[in-house]
Every structure is written in C-alpha cells, then in structure tokens.
Design brief:
With about 100 residues, this protein is mainly α. About 50% of the residues lie in helices and about 0% in strands. Bound molecules: heme C (2 copies). The site of one heme C (HEC) has 18 residues, from helix 2, helix 3, helix 5 and helix 6.
C-alpha cells in the first residue's frame, strides 16, 4: 500500500500543475458559444501547438480563477478589429503587410 501511495504522488502533482495554468480554458469551455468557441478554435490552432496561451494575447492571470480577468493582473479584453493586425504582428512578422 505504501508503494502505491509513493507512485501516485508525482502523478497528482503533475495533474495539479497542468490544471493551475488553464483556468481560462476550464471556465470558458462551459460558457455559451460566443465565449466557448474561442477555446475550440484555439485548441486546433498553431497557437496552442506552440504554447501561445489565452493570456499571451488577452492578458490576465491563468492561474487564479477569481482574478483571471482582472485588469490589475494585466487583463486586456478582446482586441477591437483595428488593433488585431498589430497584436498578431507583435509575434508573427508580416501580419501587417499580409492584409
Ligand atoms: C470563472 C470564469 C472565467 C474565467 C476563469 C475566465 N473567464 Fe473570460 N469570460 C468569462 C465570462 C462569463 C465572460 C463573458 C462576460 C464578460 O465579458 O465578462 C468572459 C469574457 C471573456 C472575453 C471577452 C471579452 C469581450 O470584450 O468580449 C475574453 C477575451 C476573455 N474572457 C478572456 C479570458 C482569459 C484570457 C482568461 C484567463 C486569463 C479568462 N477569460 C478567464 C468567464 C471567465
Ligand atoms: C493568438 C492570440 C489569441 C489567443 C492565443 C487567444 N485569443 Fe481570444 N481573441 C483573439 C483576438 C484577436 C480576438 C478578437 C477577434 C475575434 O473576436 O475573433 C479574440 C477574441 C476572443 C473572445 C471574444 C469572442 C467574441 O465573439 O466576442 C473570447 C471570449 C476569447 N478570445 C477567449 C479566448 C480564450 C479563452 C483563449 C484561450 C483558450 C483565447 N481567447 C486565446 C486572440 C487570441
């Protein structure tokens, strides 16, 4: 029995660590389509593949559900259309000239 406990401990810690970085995804996945569709789009995207998380673009605190969308934690909201090419261009060079 003691052996089982020792084996499970690292698994539990790894699960907790993964969970703590995705409060945006956990909450948004349960919201109406307008606010949950971005999760589905992101999951299938090149951004997810490269570890570009929700908070990379939107700001906020992905580890603290209660304050995730608090501007004091850097939350910026959804960019308006005129600001989007500049946001993309801050990582992907050529985003401005590709319009
Ligand atoms: C506990 C639930 C919850 C968590 C955690 C959460 N959100 Fe939200 N989010 C909402 C709800 C509800 C709305 C829609 C109502 C509103 O805008 O407040 C929303 C709206 C948004 C919007 C749209 C705002 C707009 O102007 O249309 C963005 C962007 C967003 N969330 C990003 C994030 C990011 C990034 C994180 C993690 C850092 C996050 N959210 C974490 C519940 C959550
Ligand atoms: C690569 C940058 C990027 C990432 C990563 C990203 N978003 Fe967004 N998101 C945007 C942009 C740009 C918009 C505004 C354009 C639009 O509404 O489609 C937006 C819009 C939204 C909206 C508003 C949708 C609406 O119809 O009003 C929500 C909610 C949202 N994102 C949530 C999230 C969540 C949750 C994640 C993580 C699973 C995430 N986003 C990841 C760039 C990003």
């Amino acid at each position: 029995m003691a052996v089982v406990c020792v084996c499970l401990l690292p698994t539990f810690q790894a699960t907790a660590a993964v969970k703590s970085v995705i409060v945006c995804i956990e909450c948004h996945a349960r919201l109406p389509v307008k606010f949950s569709q971005p999760v589905l789009l992101w999951q299938a995207s090149i951004h997810a593949e490269h570890g570009i998380m929700c908070n990379t673009c939107h700001g906020g605190d992905p580890m603290d559900s209660a304050n995730a969308m608090n501007p004091a934690r850097g939350y910026r909201g959804a960019p308006l259309p005129p600001a989007i090419p500049g946001l993309c261009g801050s990582c992907s060079s050529g985003a401005l000239s590709a319009q």
